Recover the amino acids of this structure.
């Protein structure tokens, strides 16, 4: 299995608070992705990165920001969490944009 | 919006059966199509990736086919086992860094 970890694995927070989720990969993959998974919607892409400091928006990027200062780390920030952002968040990485993506174990976020 | 649909949403079969999971997508212009497995509370595990120039891929008891003209992919599982019980997701790779996932088929294989 590709070495992809996510932290924290579970988090409960209150509406309006900032939240940062971390993804760490040890495969030296160029591409990294953040998805959210919700019942009835499947997985949806939030943001992705195609290199250090190179990021772009996905399908559901509103309310989220990302940063990638090192190849191995990709951070997802909710500046002011809302209840609609309660979800399971998955990070993934891959060597090329058309290549297999390897997923982390997920972070379950609950916004009260 | 490029939709990906998976049918059926849930499937229960006795051990040993051969089965087919279906995935359809609305645009034939794709880069590749991937099949994943997701166990409860876990992340996704890649099973098979079919490039747009390919028609099928095989790995062990799994075979995935791709028909771009009809916008369909199928995942064939031979001689199903209880350990195959999981949710199977297909994802259409659309545009340079955008994947569209189906909602998945939840498979239960009964001993």
């Amino acid at each position: 299995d590709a070495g992809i970890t996510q932290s924290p694995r579970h988090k409960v927070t209150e509406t309006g608070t900032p939240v940062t989720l971390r993804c760490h990969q040890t495969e030296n993959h160029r591409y990294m992705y953040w998805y959210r998974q919700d019942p009835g919607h499947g997985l949806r892409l939030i943001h992705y990165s195609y290199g250090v400091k190179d990021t772009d928006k996905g399908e559901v990027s509103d309310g989220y920001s990302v940063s990638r200062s090192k190849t191995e780390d990709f951070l997802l920030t909710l500046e002011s969490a809302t209840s609609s952002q309660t979800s399971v968040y998955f990070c993934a990485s891959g060597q090329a944009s058309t290549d297999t993506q390897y997923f982390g174990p997920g972070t379950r976020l609950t916004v009260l | 919006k490029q939709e990906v649909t998976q049918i059926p949403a849930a499937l229960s079969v006795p051990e040993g059966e051969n089965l087919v999971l279906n995935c359809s997508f609305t645009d034939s212009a794709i880069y590749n199509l991937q099949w994943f497995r997701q166990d409860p509370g876990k992340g996704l595990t890649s099973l098979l990736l079919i490039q747009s120039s390919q028609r099928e891929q095989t790995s062990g008891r799994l075979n995935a086919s791709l028909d771009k003209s009809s916008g369909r992919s199928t995942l064939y599982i031979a001689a199903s086992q209880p350990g195959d019980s999981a949710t199977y997701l297909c994802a259409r790779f659309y545009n340079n860094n955008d994947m569209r996932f189906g909602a998945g088929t939840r498979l239960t294989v009964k001993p």
About this structure: The CA atoms of residues 20 and 77 of chain A lie 4 Å apart. Chain A touches chain B at residues 1, 4, 31, 33, 40-45, 48, 50, 56, 58-59, 90, 92, 97-106 (CB under 8 Å). Chain A has a mean pLDDT of 93. Chain A is about 0% helix and 60% strand.
